[in-house]
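Hi support team,

I've been running sequence recovery on a batch of backbones for a student project. Most finish fine, but this one hangs at about 90% for roughly twenty minutes before it completes. I'm not sure whether the input is malformed or the queue is just slow. I've pasted the structure tokens below so you can try to reproduce it. Let me know if you need the job ID as well.

Thanks,
M.K.
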């Protein structure tokens, strides 16, 4: 947890947070959450007043889940770019390296800060949906109780995995547009997998395993007009956590390779 001059992992995280002052990072994150909240409210209003099979809170939770699959990669790409630019501007990264802080330590600190930011935003939107939905007339059922925690854990796991990959892209490619385009395209493509019964392919991609792990069978639910669940939601949760660990370790190995072959 220590390097020669970079201090402990906690001090590295604190340094990353300090570098974000006056960088509009937190404003950008708050703006992304605001846009997601607006879209989610619109989708919830669309379910109010529908037939009993469609006005379920669990389906609004799944709407949110699908929006996260599409939007989180782009949000993570934007935030990863901002986190990376704190090192390239004024050559802060070179200075810290000269002082003895390893690039891997900085990457880990950025991953913690970025993942926490994205995950906190998604938790806020889930909380908003859960608290406001019943008051709007969306019905709470046993299916909602069964899928709430698996959905939340999968969203949090995906936030970490996507941020890890987007950070690698932002660090390894000088042109930040590359990471932004990859994130936007990955989210867009993977968000549609569930509708064509191709969600299994999502396990192969960091932007898509959340779609593969969802506890709601999206295509079947839309076809039936009501909730249709998956067979083993908690097994999918476990697989999502494993996928997060794999993608995070792979990202860390790429950074280590880059650091050793400068």
């Amino acid at each position: 947890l220590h390097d020669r001059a970079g201090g402990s992992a906690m001090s590295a995280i604190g340094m990353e947070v300090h570098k974000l002052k006056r960088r509009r990072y937190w404003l950008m994150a708050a703006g992304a959450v605001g846009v997601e909240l607006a879209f989610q409210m619109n989708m919830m209003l669309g379910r109010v007043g529908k037939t009993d099979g469609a006005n379920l809170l669990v389906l609004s939770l799944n709407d949110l889940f699908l929006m996260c699959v599409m939007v989180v990669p782009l949000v993570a790409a934007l935030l990863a770019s901002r986190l990376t630019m704190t090192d390239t501007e004024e050559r802060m990264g070179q200075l810290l390296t000269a002082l003895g802080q390893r690039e891997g330590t900085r990457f880990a600190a950025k991953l913690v800060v970025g993942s926490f930011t994205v995950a906190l935003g998604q938790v806020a939107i889930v909380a908003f949906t859960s608290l406001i939905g019943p008051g709007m007339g969306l019905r709470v059922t046993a299916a909602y109780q069964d899928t709430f925690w698996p959905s939340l854990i999968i969203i949090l796991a995906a936030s970490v995995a996507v941020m890890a990959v987007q950070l690698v892209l932002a660090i390894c490619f000088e042109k930040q547009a590359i990471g932004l385009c990859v994130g936007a395209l990955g989210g867009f493509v993977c968000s549609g997998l569930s509708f064509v019964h191709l969600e299994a392919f999502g396990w192969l991609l960091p932007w898509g395993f959340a779609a593969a792990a969802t506890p709601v069978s999206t295509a079947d639910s839309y076809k039936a007009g009501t909730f249709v669940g998956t067979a083993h939601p908690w097994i999918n949760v476990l697989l999502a956590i494993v996928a997060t660990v794999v993608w995070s370790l792979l990202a860390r190995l790429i950074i280590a390779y880059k650091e050793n072959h400068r």
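--
Follow-up from support: It reproduced on our side and the slowdown came from queue contention, not your input. The longest strand covers residues 2-3. No action needed from you.
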